[in-house]
Design goal:
The protein is α+β, with helices and mostly antiparallel strands. Helix content is 25%, strand content 28%. The chain has a 7-stranded antiparallel sheet. A 4-stranded antiparallel sheet has the order 7-12-9-10. Bound molecules: 2-oxoglutaric acid and fe (ii) ion.
């Protein structure tokens, strides 16, 4: 589908940081929508949860295989949210057909990684529950300094996207504060040239967050509720967030190759 300049501009308002393919949309869903999603997630049958070492997850939409998706119908309670993401982002080539729901306790996270090749390279993440900091770090190959000898090799290295050969300048690590009810979308460079991860710490520093406004709001709310008093005389750093409850995320993606006969011989 063609994206008009006007639509493109709408999303452009939500670019945060220096990588132009990362968007953060605060208050993407209402409190009521968040509660409904949480109710449905926690009402899912126990067998839907898969426990990993550092989180547990529910897989909706089917089994992702290296040859594509062996599809299963998405439950009705996920349809509205994925339709809203599809309609408002206009970044997906076809309907979102896979949703991974991750649950993290305050001391849990996810190792830096890049999402697998089976997915179309656009990811939309809805956050519920506790705020959390997601870290983006450039792939190691992009942070090595390019040769200084001036022997013409810069061009070869610049195929990674930095025409002046100064890769370090363009590929700095950064973080995004993911508040409940927000939507994070990333694609292209932010998808394929950076890894993303969440530290397994209940207190997370916000020094490198690119959406500083969200952190100021968090701090403001924290002060209004008076919980700042709790920090008096303690070592708690006011540049950090405190994860006091679980965080749930919905990672919504498209698996372009759908194969209903994956296991038929
Ligand atoms: O929980 C999140 O926000 C990230 C999840 C993620 O990166 C993934 O499922 O690949
Ligand atoms: Fe991921």
């Amino acid at each position: 589908m063609e994206v008009s300049a006007e639509d493109d501009n709408k999303l452009r308002n939500f670019i945060v940081g220096d990588v132009p393919t990362l968007y953060y949309i605060p208050d993407f869903i209402t409190q009521t929508q968040q509660d409904l999603l949480l109710n449905n997630i926690y009402q899912a049958p126990a067998f839907k949860w898969k426990s990993l070492k550092n989180r547990r997850l529910q897989n909706w939409g089917g089994v992702v295989h290296e040859k594509g998706l062996l599809p299963q119908n998405l439950p009705p309670w996920l349809i509205n949210i994925i339709q809203k993401i599809f309609d408002e982002s206009r970044l997906f080539p076809s309907a979102i057909n896979h949703v991974l729901i991750n649950e993290y306790l305050p001391n849990q996270g996810i190792m830096p990684h890049q999402d697998g090749p089976a997915y179309f390279p656009v990811v939309a993440i809805v956050s519920l529950g506790s705020p959390v900091v997601m870290d983006f770090s450039p792939h190691l190959s992009l942070t090595v300094s390019t040769n200084q000898s001036g022997n013409g090799m810069e061009d070869e290295l610049s195929c990674t996207g930095a025409p002046d050969g100064n890769l370090q300048k363009d590929y700095n690590p950064f973080s995004v504060l993911l508040m409940p009810r927000s939507l994070l979308i990333f694609k292209d460079k932010a998808y394929s040239e950076y890894m993303h991860g969440i530290k397994d710490c209940p207190v997370q520093r916000c020094d490198r967050v690119v959406n500083v406004g969200e952190f100021l709001k968090y701090r403001g709310a924290d002060q209004i509720t008076g919980s700042k008093d709790l920090y008096e005389g303690t070592d708690v750093d006011l540049n950090s967030i405190n994860r006091t409850t679980n965080r749930i995320s919905l990672t919504c993606r498209v698996v372009p190759k759908v194969n209903r006969k994956l296991f038929k011989f």
